[in-house]
Design goal:
Blueprint: H1 2-22, H2 27-42, E1 44-51, E2 58-65, E3 72-77, H3 81-89, E4 93-95, H4 106-112, E5 119-126, E6 129-139, H5 146-189, H6 195-209, E7 214-221, E8 226-233, H7 240-243, H8 250-258, E9 262-264, E10 282-290, E11 298-307, H9 315-342, H10 347-361, E12 372-379, E13 387-395, E14 398-406, H11 410-429, H12 434-448, E15 455-463, E16 468-474, E17 480-482, E18 488-490, E19 494-495, E20 509-512, E21 518-522, H13 524-527, H14 538-548, H15 554-568, E22 578-585
């Protein structure tokens, strides 16, 4: 009879759990429901739940008393108390004389404010993985029984699944929010050319995605080898002397020197840390660099965040800051360049700075990819042009290939290209599809450039394992696909020029590359060259050169084309930048 009653009670609790857990995916609300259900199921004075988080070095425990609607959070050392024992051994534990059980945690008793008499702790296991622990504290009407244990074990699977689903939902929401904020941040950083405003906006924007108690942007003065221009928040007046560092000094100086990001979980244990705040316990520092994703570029400064908590920063925070830093570095460099112009620098000095920015955009070397011969070339004209190409390592066997051309010349073109490149790299980090990347970059450019300015570009991804090239042509000169049988195709699919229409839509198209086939990207500086008869070099002459020399290496073909247009051009022809990228599948 008793067994039948217990069986019926368990079934009712399982139904109640199903209704309660299916009603919400919000993590905090679900935890409240879990704790109430545990107390109701076994008639306990209180309950706690611990979800295993492999990014943490401690246990984050959520606790609730019976009749109370407030959830309190406590942190304990990994493995401590009965909760830690159950998490380690994945076995339930029933204790009715807690004072004599060595696994009882007196410090947790003090934190909670309850003297432990009886404890019932159950592991949460979902899909074969240890998810966490639930624990009932102090049976109200006597001692915990094996029937109580069976009830909680029966509920544990539903609880584990519900907590796991709510955690995944919370992570998806957080990731979506962070991507949206990074997009908004990119727009804000592109909206001003005043350096002080850019630096202030960097710190304000970071505070929207990462919790910290103090932070700063430190820029390198290349003439002095010091971290010169500084913008900080959260430091007391008079702490500047501890923040004014030589490159190489302190954690900040180390990152400025090496270009390596650092997470310091406990600053007291890192001898490089130079104290500027007594309350600081942990720190994260990332470099601000001008360069490609796959190669270290020129470091212009660092972003530094400090927290009063130990272990405050994670690898996820590091990834966010690195994505953010790529936008921030370009915005800072644009603002610096603008201030130099306003300060009355000579036009040649302005152009040199712009050329230096433009030079840092270009890859230092061609990528080495098995089965492929890939080469890019940019030969600038006398002025600062708006051509750009890059090879961007995405994941193993996938390489991003981009070529672009900005309307206009000189410093304005270099600044627009800087904005385009920063937007493109930020969206690539978000792992969007190619057509979505194009759409978001277009929207950002529309917001940040003056009417009449635009960018033409082709962005594509080469899957060298499966020999598939997926591309999106944004109003650019049509890349040439020279098939093995000599037939020619043009890479047309994509959408309009970037920066003209705010809500433009884009398509992408995959193509399979056979052995011996070649794709050639180029800018108008290759085809729009005129001779003394006012004849244009044009596409047909380029195709003839490609067909005639297709057996040569990609680098040799680029040089042959360059020499041909030089020989073709009229003596007084004003050359544009010569930019080409060639992909040849060898095997």
């Amino acid at each position: 009879m008793t067994e039948s009653i217990n069986h019926t009670r368990t079934e009712k609790l399982l139904l109640e759990a199903a209704r309660a857990f299916n009603a919400t995916l919000e993590y905090d609300e679900l935890i409240e429901r879990v704790l109430r259900l545990v107390m109701t199921a076994v008639n306990s004075e209180a309950a706690l739940v611990f979800r295993i988080d492999h990014n943490r070095t401690d246990m984050k425990i959520r606790f609730m008393r019976s009749g109370d609607s407030k959830v309190t959070i406590f942190k304990r050392e990994l493995g401590s108390g009965l909760v830690g024992w159950v998490a380690q051994y994945r076995e339930p534990a029933l204790v009715n004389d807690a004072a004599r059980d060595p696994r009882t945690d007196p410090e947790l008793e003090n934190h909670i404010g309850i003297k432990f008499h009886s404890l019932l702790s159950i592991p949460l296991i979902g899909k074969g993985q240890m998810i966490g622990v639930i624990e009932a504290i102090n049976k109200i009407d006597g001692k915990f029984t094996t029937s109580d244990q069976d009830v909680l074990i029966g509920l544990a699977n539903q609880i584990a699944v519900a907590i796991d689903n709510a955690h995944l939902y919370r992570e998806v929401k957080r990731e979506a929010l962070e991507k949206h904020l990074l997009y908004e941040i990119g727009i804000k950083l592109s909206s001003t050319l005043k350096l002080d405003e850019v630096l202030a906006e960097i710190i304000r924007s970071l505070n929207k995605v990462i919790d910290f108690d103090a932070g700063g942007v430190f820029l390198i003065d290349p003439n002095k080898g010091e971290l010169g221009s500084i913008y900080t928040e959260g430091y007391k007046p008079g702490s500047d002397k501890n923040l004014q560092l030589k490159v190489g000094q302190g954690v900040i100086g180390y990152v400025a020197k090496t270009g390596e990001p650092i997470i310091v979980p406990d600053v007291s244990k890192d001898e490089r840390y130079i104290p500027a705040r007594k309350a600081t316990n942990s720190e994260i520092v990332v470099p601000l660099s001008l360069g490609g994703l796959s190669s270290g570029g020129k470091v212009i400064g660092v972003l530094n965040l400090e927290s009063d908590k130990l272990n405050a920063f994670t690898e996820h925070h590091l990834s966010l800051m690195q994505a953010f830093a790529s936008q921030a570095a370009i915005s800072i460099e644009r603002a610096r360049l603008h201030e130099e112009i306003l300060a009355g620098k000579k036009i040649e000095e302005q152009l040199n700075v712009a050329r230096e920015i433009q030079r840092t955009f270009l890859p230092k070397t061609d990528p080495a990819i098995d089965g492929y011969d890939i080469s890019g070339i940019n030969i600038p004209s006398g002025q600062v042009g708006g051509d750009y190409y890059d090879f961007i390592r995405i994941v193993d066997s996938q390489t991003g290939i981009v070529i672009g051309d900005v309307s206009g010349k000189g410093v304005p073109a270099a600044l627009i290209m800087a904005s385009f490149r920063a937007s493109l790299i930020a969206e690539i980090r978000n792992n969007y599809s190619i057509r979505t990347i194009a759409k978001k970059v277009n929207s950002l450019l529309f917001e940040s450039v003056k009417p009449g300015n635009f960018v033409t570009a082709v962005y594509s991804v080469l899957d060298s394992r499966n020999h598939i090239l997926t591309f999106c042509n944004c109003g650019h000169d049509l890349p040439i696909l020279l098939r093995a049988d000599g037939e020619v195709e043009y890479l047309r699919e994509g959408g309009p020029i970037l920066g003209i229409a705010p809500e433009a839509e884009y398509d992408e198209r995959p193509i399979f590359l056979n052995a011996g086939e070649m794709v050639v990207y180029y800018t108008d500086g290759v085809t729009e060259v005129f001779n003394s008869k006012d004849e244009q070099f044009g596409l047909e002459r380029l195709l003839e050169l490609l067909r005639t020399n297709r057996e040569k290496s990609a680098k040799e073909i680029e040089e042959i084309v360059h020499q041909a247009i030089r020989a073709f051009a009229a003596p007084d022809h004003v050359f544009d930048d010569f930019t080409m990228v060639i992909i040849k599948r060898l095997t």
